[in-house]
Structure formats: structure tokens, C-alpha cells
From TrEMBL:
The keyword Protein transport does not apply. One of its GO terms (biological process) is cilium assembly. GO terms for cellular component: axoneme; microtubule cytoskeleton; nucleus. The keyword Cell division does not apply. It comes from Danaus chrysippus. Keywords: Cell projection, Cilium, Coiled coil, Cytoplasm, Flagellum. Residues 168-195 form a coiled coil. This is Tektin. Belongs to the tektin family.
Length: 499
């Protein structure tokens, strides 16, 4: 019984051979795998594992498991027992004596038995030698198979390391290029944001100019080239701002796509680095490495998810996606830079055209203002001359009053002549004619005074119109030259867009 327990508890050798359907299951491992302590040149190192002992009644009964000298408890059949001289004599002396007579052999049988043993020994020894030679040949073949397999596996792992290193380097280079492109995209995004915010300043200035020009009075509220340039500048600024916003949205979306592609590249490179570490460790393992263990059934476990072709295609697809996104980003960078340059040039040209229109309008207003001042000065001089003429006319009428008095007095005095002395003589005719001439002259002078006074009133109206127009010109000149141009000269429009 102790012998059977010892045989059941013996450690079994690990074998990679697949189990058959009728064979019992592999006992579960309960301890650490260890090797035989001594090495022998005629046998390999034996590896054993501790296994769980299973009682015999709990195992299925087969022909190979039945021991004729041992019967487990609970079996229905009893084992066969063979009597001999020792045991049989104690139980039945008569039977033992009779059996001893019938079991005796002759000398010939004894010699034949020896010859048979010699022949059998020679045959078995020859067979054992052949088996031993076959075993040695098999040992050499298995050693060669193991060595060649390990060499081929190492070479394959080395080739795999080379392939993985190549794709890792390609992914690393592509990721560096993509990161640089992402940085440029971020710079362009910030530049577009500054451009969108920078247009608010020029747009506010143009609107302020339009608001200031609404304060012009009278005929100065003309739809001139300056106002047309200002309205066109407002349209250009808003159009450029909308273009910048659209391009900024595209750049942000492309930046997100590039960041997602960068995450894929980082994940791929991290996985390849991890795989390279494992493959490098496996490539350096040999028969004398530490930490070697047995893993039962590991060859039947297949953790792979793809083959080498799909693996290479996946890496190539990741690189192709990255290159595609990077090409889109480069094209978008070029478009954004071109848009910024074209818009800045367009805005600056319109800004300069508006300033030129302001300059021409200011020069024209100054010229007209100077002409108005000249005409106003002439009107003032003419009014002064008319006033002097009126004074002369009034003095001339006053100067005619004394001769008129003299003539009237003479005529009155001559009316006192007696009888026939009241003759209509030449003197009478001349006095009458003198009075008529003086009256006609005074009437003419009075009509001239009325005409001069009307002319003076007309000149007053013209002067008032000139003065009002001059005030309007001065107001418009102040708005265009001081307020509008003061704002436009002090703002660098290109620095706000190309900052």
C-alpha cells in the first residue's frame, strides 16, 4: 500500500504532446516547477512539477490501472493468489507436499532453461543495443531540431525586430513632422484670431468717420468720393472679417483632425516600443537565461489578432492618414497666409485710397473756402463803396437844396413885380427851367439812392450766404481734416492684421 501511494505521489515530467480524447486530464499544478539537481551526459535535464494526488477509487478503472497485487477497497472481485511451498505448507501440508512433487524439473529441462536464458539474454541485449543506438540517434536529432528551431526562432524574432524598428522610425519621423505642422497651425490660428480682433479697430474708425461726417450742414452733406470710399472700406473690412472667421473655423477643425492623427501615431509608436522591448528580451533569451519556466498548453493559446500583412497595412494606413492630414494642414497654412496677405493688402489699399480721397476733399474744401473768403472780401469792399456812394448821393441832394431855395426865392420875389412888369421874360423862363432841372436832378438822385440801397441789400444777402457757406466749409473742413484724418493717421492698420 505504501508502494502504491509513493508511485502516485511521484512527480511527473512535463510534456508538450497534445492530450488524446481517451486519456485522463492533466493533474492540476500545486507547486513550483524544478529540475533534477545533477546533469548527466546520457540523459537531458528532467523537469518535474508537483501535482495533486488523486485516490484510486475516484479514477476510472482501466486495464492498465489494475494491479494484480493490489485491490482497492470497495471492489466486487477478489485478487488471485498463487500458493507456494512456504505459504502453502502452513495452510495445507498435504497439498503443499503433493504440489512439490509435481513441480520438480529434470536436468535436461534445467540445462535447456539455462540455454534459453543465454539466448534470451543475447537477443534482449542486441535489441537493447539497437534501441540504445536508436535513442542516441534520436537524441542527436532532437538536439539538432531544438537547436535549429531556437536558431530559426531567434532569426525570425530578429527580422521582426528589424521590421518593427523600421515602422517605429517611420512613425516617429511622421509624428515629428505632424507635431511641427500642428505648431504652425496653432500659430496661424492665433494670427487669424488677432486679425479678426484687429479689424474691429479700423472698422470702428471708419464708422466714426461716417458718424462725424453726418454732422456736416447744408450743401456740405454731399455724397462725395470720400463717403463712397468710406462705405466701400466698411464693406471690405466686414468681408475680410468674415473670411478670417471662416478660415479660423477651418483651421480649428484641421487642428482637431491633426491632433487626433497625432494621438493615433503616439499610440502606434507606444505599442511598437512595447513590442520592441518584448521582442528584444525574447531575442536575448537562451538556454542559460534566468527565469525560464514551463507554461502548460501555451502552444495551444493563440492571442494574435492579425497577420503580418494586416499589421504592415495598418501601420501604412496610419502613416498615410497622417500624411494626408499633414498635406491638408500645409495647404490650409498656405491658404491662410495668402488670405492674410491679400486681405491686408486690400485693406491697406482701400485705407490709402480713403485717405487720398480725404486729402483731395480737404484740399478742394480749402481752395473753395479761400475763394469764398476772397469773394466775401470783395463783397465787403463793394458794400463799403455802395455805402460811400449813398453818402455822396445824399450829399448831392442836400447840395441841390440851396440852389432850389435860391430859385424858389427868386421866383417868389418876382411874383411881387407890379402889373406889366410881370413879364415872362428870359429870366423867368430860366428860373422855371432851373427849378425843373433841379427837381428832375433830385428825383434822379433819389432813384439812384433807391437803386443803391437795393444793391446794398442784395450785397448783404450775398454776404450772409457767403458767410453761411464759409461756416459750413469750415465745419466740414474741421470734420475731415481734424476729426477724421486725426483718427486715421494715428492707427496702424497693417500692424493689427499682420501682427
Amino acid at each position: 500500500m505504501a508502494k502504491e501511494v509513493t508511485m502516485c505521489t511521484q512527480l511527473q515530467q512535463w510534456s508538450p504532446v497534445k492530450e488524446t480524447a481517451g486519456a485522463p486530464s492533466i493533474p492540476p499544478q500545486v507547486g513550483y516547477c524544478f529540475h533534477s539537481p545533477k546533469k548527466h551526459p546520457w540523459r537531458p535535464i528532467m523537469g518535474y512539477e508537483e501535482i495533486e494526488v488523486t485516490p484510486m477509487p475516484s479514477q476510472p478503472i482501466t486495464n492498465t490501472m489494475v494491479d494484480p497485487c493490489y485491490t482497492p477497497a470497495g471492489m466486487a472481485t477478489e485478487p488471485l493468489r498463487f500458493p507456494n511451498l512456504v505459504t502453502g505448507f502452513e495452510r495445507s501440508p498435504e497439498h503443499a507436499a503433493r504440489a512439490a512433487l509435481y513441480t520438480r524439473y529434470t536436468h535436461y529441462e534445467w540445462n535447456q532453461n539455462s540455454i534459453k536464458n543465454y539466448n534470451e539474454s543475447d537477443a534482449k541485449r542486441n535489441y537493447s543495443e539497437r534501441v540504445r543506438n536508436d535513442i542516441m540517434r534520436m537524441l542527436r536529432e532532437t538536439d539538432e531540431i531544438g537547436t535549429q528551431g531556437q536558431r530559426d526562432s531567434g532569426r525570425r524574432i530578429g527580422e521582426r525586430i528589424t521590421d518593427t524598428t523600421f515602422w517605429r522610425n517611420e512613425v516617429s519621423i511622421e509624428m515629428e513632422r505632424l507635431v511641427a505642422t500642428c505648431e504652425k497651425l496653432n500659430d496661424t490660428r492665433r494670427q487669424l484670431e488677432r486679425a479678426v480682433a484687429g479689424i474691429e479697430g479700423p472698422l470702428h474708425i471708419v464708422q466714426e468717420c461716417l458718424y462725424h461726417r453726418e454732422k456736416r450742414q447744408g450743401l456740405e452733406q454731399v455724397h462725395d468720393t470720400v463717403e463712397q470710399s468710406l462705405l466701400k472700406e466698411v464693406a471690405i473690412l466686414r468681408e475680410c472679417q468674415d473670411k478670417f472667421r471662416n478660415m479660423l473655423e477651418k483651421v480649428r477643425q484641421q487642428s482637431k483632425n491633426c491632433r487626433a492623427t497625432q494621438h493615433e501615431l503616439e499610440t502606434d509608436m507606444r505599442n511598437k516600443e512595447y513590442a520592441l522591448g518584448i521582442d528584444s528580451m525574447c531575442h536575448q533569451l537562451n538556454n542559460f537565461s534566468k527565469g525560464l519556466q514551463f507554461y502548460a498548453g501555451i502552444e495551444r493559446y493563440d492571442p494574435t489578432v492579425c497577420d503580418a500583412a494586416r499589421w504592415s497595412a495598418a501601420s501604412a494606413a496610419t502613416l498615410q492618414r497622417s500624411q494626408s492630414e499633414r498635406a491638408k494642414a500645409v495647404q490650409m497654412l498656405s491658404d491662410a497666409e495668402n488670405l492674410i496677405n491679400v486681405s491686408a493688402t486690400e485693406i491697406w489699399d482701400q485705407w490709402s485710397n480713403t485717405n487720398s480721397a480725404f486729402t483731395r476733399r480737404i484740399a478742394e474744401t480749402i481752395e473753395i473756402k479761400n475763394k469764398l473768403q476772397l469773394h466775401l472780401h470783395k463783397i465787403q469792399q463793394e458794400m463799403f463803396d455802395v455805402e460811400k456812394t449813398l453818402e455822396l448821393l445824399n450829399k448831392a441832394i442836400e447840395d441841390k437844396l440851396q440852389p432850389m431855395k435860391v430859385a424858389h426865392t427868386r421866383l417868389q420875389a418876382r411874383t411881387n413885380r407890379p402889373h406889366l412888369e410881370k413879364c415872362r421874360d428870359e429870366a423867368q423862363h430860366r428860373l422855371v427851367k432851373e427849378v425843373c432841372d433841379l427837381q428832375e436832378t433830385m428825383e434822379t438822385l433819389r432813384s439812384k439812392i433807391a437803386t443803391a440801397e437795393g444793391t446794398h441789400q442784395t450785397l448783404l444777402g450775398v454776404r450772409a450766404g457767403l458767410e453761411a457757406d464759409l461756416r459750413n466749409k469750415s465745419t466740414a473742413l474741421f470734420i475731415d481734416r481734424d476729426q477724421c484724418m486725426g483718427l486715421r493717421r494715428g492707427y496702424p492698420v497693417t500692424a493689427a492684421i499682420k501682427a
